[in-house]
Write a structure and sequence with these properties.
The protein is α/β, with parallel strands linked by helices and 313 residues long. It has helices at 11-17, 34-45, 79-89, 98-102, 151-162, 178-181, 192-196, 211-214, 277-289, 293-299; strands at residues 52-56, 59-60, 92-96, 115-116, 120-121, 124-125, 142-144, 263-264, 267-268. A hairpin with a 2-residue loop joins strand 5 and strand 6 (124-125). 37% of the residues are buried.
């Protein structure tokens, strides 16, 4: 559903404009039933060439490593075997979403489904395909992480691959493309003034920063979510919902509730990346002492009640 919203013209037309042909997708293609199996079998056996294998959803290796929990309808074969075979034929392999990348929600404890990602099991390298090169081009699996990922992350990665402009060094340590993973979801958030002054919301729908009380992990979450808008104008934090760091492995098993900030001695457990605890405490104390009354009041409201002072007449 996220990918369908790819701009400027939707997923299929945007790919066509870039000269990328969508060979088959379970929801978007005409072929279904035996015709779909024929397409997949031709690709698996090498009778039909293709460049990119995109996998959505976690890989279910259970029960007991057989893959029997997820059988491709009409084929009688576990999906894990299909993915293994197709990955050997593709030039590049993409994991679309954090489930395909790391196991995601289905890998939450106790993980009775034995869910893993394509090349990671949580934050451990390996997964279904091992931790080396993958596909005939030899690149690792490219993890378009997120729950869901931004459609631009997928489309721009495919465009870079089609132009031969994507290399192993363009991936970070968890296989995410650096063009978006070198940012934080915090960058560009419309609540940043409240964050700077540690003027925090106490409950949902309020304007203030969501980090101190409502579980927001945007200062730790890779992604340019607030620099490139979704569906023309939104993002999680701009819509009033705390960032849950869904682009990272293990987000599905938070410490406490998704919408509560775990604390020790009043200090949030999850601090911004690169910031020592002592610095955060000192900065918070200084920032709160300097908070303008306008910011303090607006933080606990659902709309701006005190506008910025206007200079001049």
């Amino acid at each position: 559903m996220s990918a369908l919203g790819a701009e400027p013209a939707g997923l299929v037309e945007t790919l066509e404009r870039a000269g990328i042909h969508l060979l088959w997708h379970p929801s978007l293609s005409e072929e279904g039933g035996p015709a779909a199996l024929d397409v997949l079998e031709d690709c698996r056996c090498g009778r039909r060439g293709f460049d990119v294998l995109c996998v959505e959803g976690a890989i279910l290796e259970g029960p007991n490593g057989t893959g029997g929990f997820h059988i491709l309808g009409g084929s009688g074969r576990p999906m894990v075997r299909w993915v293994e075979d197709l990955a050997k034929r593709a030039r590049y392999v993409l994991a679309v979403g954090s489930c395909a990348g790391y196991g995601g929600m289905l890998a939450a404890e106790p993980n009775s489904l034995e869910a893993v990602g394509l090349q990671f099991a949580g934050d451990e390298a390996g997964g279904l395909l091992g931790d080396g090169g993958c596909g005939t081009a030899g690149l690792p699996v490219i993890n378009i992480a997120g729950c869901p990922p931004h459609p631009g992350w997928l489309v721009e990665t495919l465009m870079a691959l089609s132009l031969g402009q994507f290399r192993a060094e363009d991936l970070d340590g968890f296989g995410r493309p650096r063009f978006w993973a070198n940012h934080l979801a915090h960058h560009g958030c419309n609540r940043n003034e409240y964050y700077e002054f540690k003027a925090s919301a106490a409950e949902p729908s309020q304007n203030g920063c969501l980090m101190e009380n409502l579980g927001c992990k945007a200062t730790q979450a890779p992604g340019d979510c607030n620099l490139r808008v979704w569906n023309g104008g939104g993002s999680c934090t701009n819509g009033g919902f705390a960032c849950i760091n869904c682009t990272s492995p293990g987000f599905e098993d938070p410490t406490g509730s998704f919408l509560e900030t775990p604390k020790i001695a009043g200090i949030p457990v999850g601090l911004p990346v690169d910031m020592p605890k002592a610095w955060f405490v000192a900065l918070s104390a200084l920032s709160k002492s300097a908070t303008p009354e306008r910011v303090r009041k607006n933080a606990r409201e659902d709309r701006i009640v005190v506008p910025p002072r206007q200079r001049g007449p």
